[in-house]
Amino acid sequence: METNSARTPITLTDRLRAWFKWVIDPLGKFFLSIGMTPNMMTGLGMLGNFVGAYFLSQGKMVIGGWIVLVMTPIDGLDGTMARLRGDPSDFGAFVDSVSDRYAELAILGGLMYHFAGQGNALGSVLAFAAAAGSVLVSYVRARAESLSYEAKVGILTRAERYLVLAPLLVFNKPMIALWILAILANFTALQRIWFVRKQAHAQMK
What we know:
By secondary structure, the chain is an all-alpha fold.
């Protein structure tokens, strides 16, 4: 089955990795030099985001936001470290993706818990919609790639979601962040579904 990988747009995540390679690579080398491994960095990033999620669940948006903001680049170093060490693996990439989903769901779950406790039904619904959208964005891509389609497209991939979420939490604007995520994450899932549909129809011609 042929794919449209050659025509797949470059995502913001890809661009960020290229733009900040001059920072990311030295950081990766530093952590490797002090004995950290890619898997340890994955665990550290996930643990840090869980801590941030706890503060968010307690309504401490600024503290939780700063933790999420700091943990985001740390969580992204594991792949760089594996590449620099010369032993990237499919299983490592798999674990990294799964840990990313756990971290993101923990953050959104913390927000949903907080708003539920405050009796803010809208906030709880938005947090749930944002979580559903973020999972669907990843699921659609994973399912598409399992069928040899490309689905690495969309307006709000993981990097964009964190660039929206973390700064707005730091500025104590969680509702604005959730509105954006709830709408655009689900829109991104629909974009990917449409992108796969076009590939499937092109193959039938």
